[in-house]
């Protein structure tokens, strides 16, 4: 008998499966709070968590499907995460700019991405110069460039003028870029730089018959729309916009318990995909 085509599960990480202390949203009484597993340490300090139950579900999911972490993080930021279960064979970093195969960048894929960016959108230097010129040092804490692919600012949200982000988005749109506000970070990302394109490439390589996805931010919308089924939590940019689509389930849970619920849904669907 021919081998059954695998199910591919592509999930965002931050505020979808893993959570900083500030994003946990532990609203229950302390005595009823879930046990947490630290999955990321940075500069000798614990940084990101999931519930122990979610960790177990992720281990099971790795046995049932091709699990692909799909993140806007740089490769260096991704590689300090220690997820439960076996190391994923594929991972997507820098919002699709890097496809890792057994932890190593696929250079052919990266070259294809760079060629598309050069053809379809304004250069990164133009974007970073505009950010330097227009972002007020009063509320900007850091200017960053990720993997020479996109830019982001770390800001003080309470001081950030709401109109500034909207004006930036309009300016960027005309240059083939998109803007996303996530927590204390404002991302400016080229429109052709997408998680969905990299996920389609993994699906092609693995022969996946079904693609499932999860994510919380505007940068995850294309990923969710490209999947056969998708889930988003009750927090994040997509929830704030009440964003949904026919194959997308909008879950009510917020914070780290949303990560647990997402993994339950992914595992259940991977096991019974009909």
Report on the architecture of this protein.
The chain is α/β, with parallel strands linked by helices and 274 residues long. The protein is built from nine helices and 15 strands. The chain has helices spanning 52-64, 75-79, 107-120, 124-134, 162-173, 195-206, 221-226, 237-240, 256-271; strands at residues 7-11, 19-20, 36-42, 45-51, 66-69, 90-93, 98-101, 104-105, 140-146, 150-155, 177-182, 185-190, 210-214, 229-232, 248-250. The strands form four sheets. Strands 5-1-13-14-15 form a five-stranded parallel sheet, with helices on both faces. Strands 9-10-12-11 form a four-stranded antiparallel sheet. A hairpin with a 2-residue loop joins strand 11 (177-182) and strand 12 (185-190). Helix 1 runs parallel beside helix 9 (256-271). The longest helix has 16 residues, at 256-271. The protein is globular, with a radius of gyration of 18 Å. The mean pLDDT is 96. Keywords: Hydrolase. This is HAD family hydrolase. InterPro entries: HAD-like_sf (IPR036412), HAD_sf (IPR023214), TPP-like (IPR024197).
SSE topology:
Blueprint: E1 7-11, E2 19-20, E3 36-42, E4 45-51, H1 52-64, E5 66-69, H2 75-79, E6 90-93, E7 98-101, E8 104-105, H3 107-120, H4 124-134, E9 140-146, E10 150-155, H5 162-173, E11 177-182, E12 185-190, H6 195-206, E13 210-214, H7 221-226, E14 229-232, H8 237-240, E15 248-250, H9 256-271
Parallel strand pairs: 1-5, 1-13, 13-14, 14-15
Antiparallel strand pairs: 2-4, 3-4, 6-7, 7-8, 9-10, 10-12, 11-12
